[in-house]
Specification:
- By secondary structure, this protein is α/β, with parallel strands linked by helices.
- Helices cover about 45% and strands about 20% of the residues.
- A seven-stranded mixed β-sheet has the order 3-2-1-4-5-7-6, with helices on both faces.
- Helix 6 links the parallel strand 4 and strand 5.
- Helix 3 packs across helix 4 and helix 7 packs across helix 11.
- The relative contact order is 0.16.
Length: about 270
């Protein structure tokens, strides 16, 4: 694995040790709030985003699904249970592999779930072939997303789907927003935040047929302040080595969420 991969894995390990996963209600990704449902708690909203991803995978019982950047396994477990499919999750965090396996062991779908340490930028050849693949807020950690998407295509059967949920820039960040974006990239070990056009170009270059690209940024926007509030709550008792990063991350997430240029895309593509 590369030094960048080690840095990303280390960052997620650090935040996990500080309790951020529990503070966010289990998932480690943004939530989705329907119009007028701002009262819905973060845990339910993050599950809602997982469900939106799963709906676009065109799953059938028995399908094999790859979760790229599986985190602690919550989305994989939910999708395996709900759709009666097999899910393999990969992550660059050893702590997440262990935690995901623990969560899966308590699931009725335990025999259809597996997790391993692997890098999306260099997927191992022994993964096999999948009917669908999804990536929730994981591709933004990769410096060459087009190359990763190209390699992912090799592991998906013809006609199989890819669903990506990720941050995007509606317009270039300017003024104070530039510092916020730079801080997010630095603090969260992000390689970059694409524009919609960049997302489209990466998929085209990698040989995927784009079926749908939705900007659901307004439905996702409450995530940033809720996540920032959760981070602030755990900063005081956190180990000193983590507290400063947690507070910094909280302030950056809140500022990012307030910026009108911050969007969030839900992408569905298909292998020819």
């Amino acid at each position: 694995m590369t030094s960048q991969t080690d840095a990303v894995g280390g960052k997620y390990d650090q935040f996990a040790q500080a309790g951020t996963t529990e503070a966010l209600g289990g998932n480690i990704h943004a939530g989705y709030w329907d119009a007028g449902a701002e009262h819905v708690p973060m845990a339910a909203a993050t599950d809602r985003l997982t469900d939106l991803v799963a709906e676009r995978l065109a799953l059938r019982p028995g399908h094999r699904v790859l979760d790229v950047g599986c985190g602690n396994g919550f989305p994989a477990v939910r999708i395996a249970e709900t759709h009666d499919v097999h899910v393999t999750g990969i992550t660059v965090s050893q702590q997440e592999v262990v935690r995901a396996a623990e969560i899966a062991a308590e699931s009725e779908a335990r025999d259809r779930l597996s997790f391993r340490l692997a890098d999306a930028a260099g997927l191992p050849d022994d993964l096999g072939t999948f009917d669908a693949v999804f990536a929730i807020e994981s591709l933004l950690h990769l410096s060459d997303q087009a190359a990763a998407l190209t390699r992912l295509r090799r592991f998906v059967r013809p006609g199989g789907r890819l669903v990506v949920a990720d941050l995007c820039q509606r317009e270039p960040f300017t003024g104070a927003g530039e510092a916020v974006l730079a801080g997010m990239i630095r603090t969260l070990e992000i390689a970059g935040v694409n524009s919609e056009q960049q997302h489209r170009a990466n998929l085209e270059q990698a040989g995927w047929n784009l079926l749908e690209l939705l900007d659901i940024g307004e439905n996702v926007r409450p995530s940033y302040e809720q996540a920032a509030a959760a981070f602030r709550r755990i900063a005081d008792p956190a180990p000193p080595f983590a507290a400063a990063d947690i507070i910094t991350a909280a302030e950056l997430m809140a500022a990012f969420g307030e910026n009108p240029s911050s969007g969030y895309v839900l992408i569905t593509a298909q292998r020819p």
